[in-house]
Amino acid sequence: MGISVLAIESSCDETSAxxxxxxxxxxxxxxxxxxxxKFGGVVPELASRAHMQNIVPVVETSIKEAGCELKYxxxxxxxxxxxxxxxxxxxxxxxKSMALSLNKPLIAVHHMQAHVLANxxxxxxxxxxxxxxxxxxxxxxxxxxxxxxKMKVIGETIDxxxxxxxxxxxxxxxxxxxxxxxxxxxxxxxxxxxxxxxEPNIPDLNFSFSGLKTSILYFLQNAGKSNLxxxxxxxxxxxxxxFIQKNLADICASIQHRIVTILLNKxxxxxxxxxxxxxxxxxxxxxxxxxxxxxxxxxxxxxxNSYIPAFQYCTDNAGMIAITxxxxxxxxxxxxxSVSSSARAVW
Length: 347
Ligand code: KG4
Ligand code: ZN
Fold this sequence. Notes:
binds 5'-O-[(R)-(carboxyoxy)(hydroxy)phosphoryl]adenosine, alpha/beta, five-stranded mixed sheet, binds zinc ion, 9 helices
């Protein structure tokens, strides 16, 4: 048997454990937390408590599903940062306890690095160097990846993340959290060119989504009476709701189209500037059907080799932590048991 890594991910509201043997993911078990639904967002304290309840059965299930036994595990990998501190601590302490009791090395993994390396799980895999557009609920980045353990952020959001842009837009439309998948759903029936939301003018490879959110707010307050995105006409709640109801599909399609063009224009720029044409997507927002479609079209047009991980490796999952742990094992990047979890992390 080759190198076996047990990985734990607990950075936000998914408790997940995975087994990776020689770069192959044998199990990737994810427990979603439903406790947050009625609050319209993740409640950190409730997330930590749910992780505590989930962690033992989740780890047990992942070992069982992989047909593995604890004695065959060579290392324990875990998400050290970034994320909700209480949630990270649960996974971190559990991983440390396992490493200590099994007398196996511990591998601390950066969650955003792991999102990128999800592209190395299944074939076909990108060759190095590649660019990755990582689009999550909490982060949006363009990463230049030179090797599995050598990567640098060359662009990122200066305010909201792409997932937040979807979720906040959905909230303005009165849709429940997380609204990203709902915008995607309604957009399928709509005209993406019906309403023209402005594209921010940000130099370099950074992103900004907060202006879009404000323009949607004004647009809805104007109940479609103006395309100027200013506070011109204050519609009543009734007028606004009627307007949304009548035009929901077109509004969703237009918002989605704008978010997608903001994202793709920057990755296109990054490709032109670096000369790299191996291009990957990663993160929960890469589930968006509009993004996948337009990414595919642009890849064809510019002769890129494009890659998107399987859906289960796009949203938060321990499979991506396991593959990162595997590469760190090969390069000998182990952590001391004193390593501490961190809510914020620099690369
Ligand atoms: O990567 P992820 O699972 O969590 C973080 O690490 O942040 O991403 C979650 C985000 C949420 O904002 C959710 O609304 C968004 O991904 N999302 C989508 C879709 N599926 C998930 N956004 C747009 N369209 C989708 N189909
Ligand atoms: Zn994530």
